[in-house]
Structure formats: structure tokens, C-alpha cells
Amino acid sequence: MTNTNLTTQANPKTNPNSQLQGWRKFAGNELLERLATPHGVSQYLENINPLWSLTDIRAKVVARQQETADATTLVLKTNGNWRGFTAGQFVTLSVEINGRQVSRCYSISSAESDERVRITVRRKQGGEVSNFIADHVEIGDVVSLSPAAGEFVLPTTDKPLLMIAGGSGITPIMSMLRSLDWAASKQPVTLMYYARETATAIFQPELEQLADKQGRFVLRMVNTAEQGRYSNKQLDKLVEDAANYQTLLCGPASLMAAVEADYEQRGLSDQLLLERFTLPEPRIPENPDVVSGDVMFSHSERYVANSGENLLEQAEAAGLQPEFGCRRGICHRCTCTKSSGTVRDAITGELSATPNEAIRLCVSVPVGDVTLDI
Amino acid sequence: MNAQTDFTLTNNKANNKPIGNAHILSSETVLSPDAMAEKYGMTAAALEEFGTKMDAIRDKHLADRGDRDTSYIRKLIRVQRGLEVAGRGLLYASIPALLVPPLAIPVWAAGVASLGLAKILDNMEIGHNIMHGQYDWTGDPALNSKTFEWDAASPSANWRNSHNYEHHTYTNIVGKDRDVGYGTMRMSDAQPWHPVYLGNPLYATLLALNFDAGVSLHDLEIERIRSGELTWKEQLPVLKRIGQKAVKQYGKDYLFFPALAGPFFLPILLGNLVANGMRNLWAFTIIFCGHFPDGVEQFTNEAADNETRGQWYFRQLLGSANLEGGKLFHIMSGNLSHQIEHHLFPDVPAHRYAEMAVEVQAECKKHGLPYNTGPLHKQFATVVGRICRLALPNRKGDKPNNESAGNTLAAA
């Protein structure tokens, strides 16, 4: 079983392919950079147009499509720093909400060959970014993207493909279906698509059209309200001889768990490629006064039980030597990135669960599990 | 909440050594925190209440941060970049203007002024404030305190240590806050007099003219190397960063940009020199008005030990002085004209200090605490007075008082 994980965020800012292309190659030359020190050429260009960045992938929203009542597709025109993607991959999308950059991972839903990158986002209850995209992102807005990442891509195999999607888990699979060269082979493709009501199923009309047009594509819509959730029997009923298939799975946690367990029982785990699609929403533990959880220092690969002290003390106790100064929240020298988890500000008592947030170690006390990028 | 205990410096293992403590005397003006509290009639309870009020002002503004702050700083960056590009453009435009000689000089001067203003904005309202972490919460890498680099000789990594940590933590503690005298001048009567300080006004003038280089070298802590507290080897990374930044910074202003003008190398070089000088004089003037006007208090060495939040706010308030002026003046001074608010709330976006000042002043009035403010010419005149007065030995009335000197040395 191959398990790719959306929760491991791609670095939103650095482009691994630092090779500049086109006019950017000229703009980023050594002499101009020397003249533009210390800010760099890119900063001057970005002041005129954020899309002219030499370093960051930025994209302009050129269209919005309402897929269903609660799902919106952003059609993005990327700048010259975008290096493409493989169908099934995701990007970290950053938008600015009330002056603050907030990032989330989203799978790309467009075809590899599409000139525009499409991201389809379903509104989540309480989801800061998904609601912002649904309500506030307008045509002409500029967003930031990370390079595409993720291992959830079409496997090279002659076996027939079985795709199992649930809810917004359809997005990477839609990208695959749109990218497939349907004329090139006879490899059969079956999609089992789980939805609470078929009216809320994203891309359903396009999928039906595809099924009508392509003889080797079979669409099995599963309405969970009528047909029930995934089960061993249901799979056998809808797909003949599932053992012959290479399976790709992406959907909500409950669906993923049911399919994984079933495949394990069938001894087919090595034919299952899956994407953990549901990002855990930042959550504040129920009882923040109880010392609990672990502190993970991801960069130095150390792991300690939360002692209840501030993170600077805990890092030092774990043998790390983070930079520090005043040790009381004034100087910001110990600022580092908290990848995930909740911390309490020792001065204000405020709790913060925002992922990828800059925190001062000396006045941050972990509440439950916390991961730091040091 | 355990705010008080989290705030003390008792857990500071590595950095509780005072600087050159053996040379610090006490005096009637430089007091311990207790003596200072007594002088202003602040009981422990009153200090605590003052601290709670200051915390409330801070929390209110931190919670309110948003689009307004991000838009403000970005707008300022756009203006700064515009002035910079225009300034450099005008410097080059003064070359063809030589065909009509009376035109060349005003064009050149306009270029210098524009570039000088750009450098002032870059260093003060933009750089200084971003490097304090005032915009870290935006998540924008261009506004991040750890990665921002300013258009000045001092490398930001060194500056964040000497300024954000040492100066803002140990503000006006003579012997610990190295901004008191910058290691070369006598800015407190608790620094024992030596004939070398007869040069105080000269050193101040040289520092003012070369302020960015001075700030850069300040981070080397040469006086601590001389006294044996630090070794050259320990300071090697600092020195290396200074060298690398200097090559880039001076290479840009004094080599690459002038070289683009070919035979007109010198006028361009001169333009950069004057623009940098303009920034240096302005920055020096504003910054020295922050902590050295008359009425600003200085503290003895033990001030930061086991200090409560209230005591810390109290020290920041007494150790800083404001400048009065209009909105443009505050922007051009990087809002260091609100030095008191900056020291009380160093990581709150500085454009809010004007609003916070009203709230702080009201609290000061309630507690009968002084709020040191005045127009630039008045405040600066008292700074010049201090620089000249301290060039000479303390007069009789200012002589170190044996009893409190004993206390200071014992504490150190």
C-alpha cells in the first residue's frame, strides 16, 4: 500500500527549480542583483506587479466556476515560476485573509495539458480558507502557490484502474481522468464515486459525459443515502473481479479506513494507492490546562513528552540549541515556525492553533501535541 | 495565569553577566529599581496595576491587527522603492543635464534628497519595525523579521541581537544596555570619567556622520573584547557577517552604481555618499533623542533581575523620551518619535503608537508618572548638553554616592 499524505505541506514559498526562465533570467542576473541589494530585484518587480516575482509562484484568478452549491473552482493563470504538475498532485495555496497569509493544501483538478491550473474547493464548516475562497476570492485576485507535490499519481501499469473517490476527494482523480490519453490504450478505468446526494457530487455532469463518450470508462455513482457506505459486498457488486485492478483511493477518513481494511483482508494492500485527503482542522484541545501531548522538533528529528514548560526550555532540555535572547517575549530572537499544534501565550494566556505560524519559543507553552520546525 | 513567573529572567542561564561591571559606579541619578519606585511613589501594587493596564493596551492592539497594518507597511514599502528608484534615476539624469549646467545641480540635489529619504524610510519605519517582528504575524516572507535585510551597513542578524535583545531587554541599565554610550562615549554620570571622554562631542559628531558604520561596528562589542569578557574567536561570526554585508552594501553605493556612469563616476559616488550621510545624521538625531534627553532615568545593574512585568514597563517608560510632531514627522522618524510606546510595545506595529500614546499618557497621569516628550529642537538640545556636560568629570553635586555605589557593586 502506498500512502501519500496531504498533511505534509509542501514549502509554500521556495521553488525547487531555481532556474529562471525567459525574461526572468535577465532580470535576475548577477549585476542587477548586486545593484538591488539587499532587497533583491524580485522585491522591486513585485511592488509593481506581484506576478512578476522572480522567486515565488503566484497566480491570478482568471475565472470562478460554481461546481455545486458548496464547491467552487478557481481557474488560475500561473506566473513564469510554475513548473507544471503530474495529475493527482497538490499545491499549497496561500491567500491573504485580513492581512494574514493563510495556507492550505488543495489537489489540482485540471488536466496536465490545461494551460490554466484549476483548484476545486468545497466549503467546509468553520474552514477559514475554504469559506474565504467561496465568499471573497474574486477574479483578478492574486494567490501564492507552492510547487506541485505528492506521490498520488497514475501508476504505470497495464492493469485496469479502479478509482474510489468520496466527496472532494474527487479532485485529484478528476485531474487524472482529464489528463488520461483515452485514445492511446484500451486500459479499462472504473470510478466508484461516493456522494451523500448525487446533486452535491462535484463534476458529475462531466463524468457522465465522459462515460458516454469513452467505452473504457465506467462510472459507478454511489449514493450513500440510498446504497449505504462502502462495504466488501458493495465493491463486489459494483466491480467485477476487483482483485484484477490497481486501485486509487481518495476521500474522507471513514471511506479510506473502510477500503483500507477491506483491501487488507483481501490481501490486496499492495494494489492500493491512496491519498489522505482530509487535513486535520486546527483544533484546540478540550482541556488546555492539563499538560499533555508530545513536542516534536521536526528539523532535528527529536521528540519529547510535553513537560508543561515553555518551548524554549523544552527544546534546550531535549538537547537543542535554538537561538534566544531575552527569554521573556520581547526580542523575537527565538521566533520559529510551529508547523502544527496549539500553544498558549504565557503572557496573554491566548491559545493559538494556527498551523505554520511564527511563534516565540520563550513565551509559548505547548497545549497537547506540537510540532516545531527546528 | 502564571504570567509573572514566566516573565522573570531567573532562567536566563547564559546571559546574566553585566557588561564591564567593574567600571560602573552608581550616582544620585542612576538608581536601583526599588529606589526608582520610591522616587516616583510607586508601591508594588501600583506597579502591578500599571503593568496590567499596559498589558491591556498591548492586547487590545495585538488583537486588532489586520489588513490595516499589512496595507500600511506595503504602501510604505512601495513609496520607499519609488523614492529610491527615482533618486537613482535623477542622479543619472543630472549627467545629460550638464549640457545646461544650471539645471544639473538641482537635478542632482533632488536625486540625493530622494535617495536619502528612501534610505531613511527603509531603515526606520520599514526595516527597524519589521526586524522587531511587528509584522511576523502576517506570514508574508517579505515582512519577516528573520529574513528582512535593510539598506544599511549593519547586518540584520547582528542588529537583532544588539538591539532587540540587549537594548530592549536591558534598556537604560548602565553597564548592560550598550546603547548607553555605544562603548565609546560617556552618556551617563555613572560611567567613571576618564580624560578620553574630553572627546565626547567629537565622538558624537563622528558617530552621527558615520552612524550606519557605527551601528555595524557596535555589534562587534569591542569594549567587551578588550575587557576580556569576549574573545575575537567568539565574535568571528559577527565580524564575518559585518564584512559580507559591507562588501555588498558599499559595493553597491560606492562602486557599482557609480561605475554605471562611466566617466561621471564621481558625481554619482558623491550623491550616494551625501544620501547616506543624510540618513546617518537624521537617524542619529532621532535615536539619541530616544534615551538621552533630560529627565530620562537610568538604572543600576540589578534592574532586570527578577523584574515583574509592571517593573519592566515602569523602567521602559522612565528610560525613554518622545518627540512631538506631525504625521509625516512620525513616519520619517520610524515612529521612534514615540520611543516610549516603542519601548513599552516593541512588537506592536509602530504606526499604532500615536493611538497608543493617548492611552499610555492617560495611565501615566493616573499614577502621577512623568511622560517625557517635547519638540525635536528642545529634546535634541538637552542631548547635546548631556554629551558636552559628561565630557567633563561629574560636578560636586553629581559625585557618586558611596552607599549606593556599594550596593551596585555588591549586586554586580
Using the alpha-carbon principal axes, give the shape of chain A. Answer: globular
Strand order of the largest sheet of chain B: 1-2
Read across the widest sheet of chain A, the strand sequence of neighbours is 1-12-11-8-9-10
- Separation of the first and last Cα atoms of chain A: 31 Å
- Helix-strand pattern of chain A, N to C? EHHHEEEEEHEEHEHEHHEHEEEHEEEE
Would you mind describing this structure in some detail?
The complex is a heterodimer of chains A (374) and B (412). Chain A has 374 residues and is α/β, with parallel strands linked by helices. Chain A has ten helices and 18 strands. A six-stranded parallel beta sheet of chain A has the order 1-12-11-8-9-10, sandwiched between helices. In chain A, helix 5 links the parallel strand 8 and strand 9. The two termini of chain A are 31 Å apart. Mean pLDDT of chain A is 90; it is low at 1-17. With 412 residues, chain B is mainly α. Chain B is built from 17 helices and four strands. Chain B has helices spanning 3-7, 33-39, 44-64, 67-93, 101-131, 156-169, 200-209, 211-218, 222-226, 232-260, 265-291, 309-318, 327-332, 339-344, 353-367, 376-389, 402-411, and strands spanning 30-31, 298-299, 322-324, 373-375. Chain B has a two-stranded parallel ribbon with strand order 1-2. In chain B, helix 3 (44-64) packs across helix 12 (309-318), helix 4 runs antiparallel to helix 5 and helix 5 packs across helix 11 (265-291). Mean pLDDT of chain B is 88; it is low at 1-24 and 398-412.
Brief digest:
The complex is a heterodimer of chains A (374) and B (412). With 374 residues, chain A is of the alpha/beta class.
Set down the secondary structure blueprint:
The complex is a heterodimer of chains A (374) and B (412).
Chain A: E1 2-5, H1 23-27, H2 30-35, H3 41-48, E2 57-68, E3 71-78, E4 90-97, E5 100-107, E6 117-122, H4 128-135, E7 142-145, E8 161-166, H5 170-179, E9 189-195, H6 204-213, E10 217-223, H7 224-227, H8 232-238, E11 246-251, H9 253-266, E12 272-276, E13 294-297, E14 302-305, H10 311-317, E15 335-345, E16 351-352, E17 357-360, E18 364-372
Parallel strand pairs in A: 1-12, 8-9, 8-11, 9-10, 11-12, 13-18
Antiparallel strand pairs in A: 2-3, 2-7, 3-6, 4-5, 4-7, 13-14, 15-16, 15-17, 15-18
Chain B: H1 3-7, E1 30-31, H2 33-39, H3 44-64, H4 67-93, H5 101-131, H6 156-169, H7 200-209, H8 211-218, H9 222-226, H10 232-260, H11 265-291, E2 298-299, H12 309-318, E3 322-324, H13 327-332, H14 339-344, H15 353-367, E4 373-375, H16 376-389, H17 402-411
Parallel strand pairs in B: 1-2, 3-4
